[in-house]
Amino acid sequence: MNDHLYFAASLHRLYNLTLRDFGRANGLSQTEMHVLLFLHNNPDCNTARDMVHLRPEENNRRVNRLFLLPAAAPLIEGLSQRQGQFFRALQRGLTPEQQAQADAYFAVLQRNINAELARLGEGGPVTDRAGT
User: Fold this and answer.
1) How many whole angstroms separate alpha carbon 78 and alpha carbon 55?
2) What percentage of the chain's residues is helix, strand, coil (to nearest 5)?
3) CA dist 41 to 3, 79, 82, 83, 130, Å?
4) Rounded distance, CA 75 to CA 1, Å?
5) Cα dihedral 40, 80, 36, 72 in deg (nearest 10)
6) What is the pLDDT of residues 43-90, one digit of tens each?
7) pTM
8) Is residue 121 left, alpha or beta, with left meaning phi > 0 and alpha meaning psi from -120 to 50?
9) What is the CA radius of gyration of the chain?
10) What string of DSSP letters covers 55-91?
11) How big is the CA angle at 1 (ends 117 and 130), to the nearest 5 degrees?
12) Residue 54: closest CA among 125, 132, 129, 128
């Protein structure tokens, strides 16, 4: 496996493992945790369509908006803490200059990803935040 694919696979695995125990303790699947974090981190992207980057069928213009209920607050707090733990672990040892360089690098990668998705006809809302 090349270095970039290994990095991406390792990153994905670490992220899921960081959330795993919290999900198990609270009866949440990986998908449920990702949806909760997405809604928490991206309150303006609150349709299922936003989440899966699909357009509605032409004859079906209904949009179902999703909102977090106050009862979800303890789950959101726990998930947010673990998400923060994940990002702090990734950035450990980086100087502020290195972090700025990494941010710039990933911004270029994201623009390239967006352009390629658009070229392939898969464009859609892409959030600036990693909140799944």
Assistant:
1) 32
2) 65, 0, 35
3) 29, 11, 13, 11, 8
4) 36
5) -90
6) 888 887 777 653 364 455 556 777 899 999 999 999 999 999 998 998
7) 0.63
8) left
9) 17
10) PPPTT-----B----GGGHHHHHHHHHHHHHHHHHHH
11) 45
12) 125
Q: Report CA 59 to chain centroid distance, whole Å.
A: 30
Largest separation between any pair of C-alpha atoms in the chain: 53
pLDDT digits (tens, 9 = 90+) for 115-132: 887 887 766 544 444 445
Tokens of 69: 């209920």
Amino acid sitting at position 24: R
Q: Exposed, middle or buried, 65 (CB in 10 Å: 0-12/13-18/19+)? A: exposed
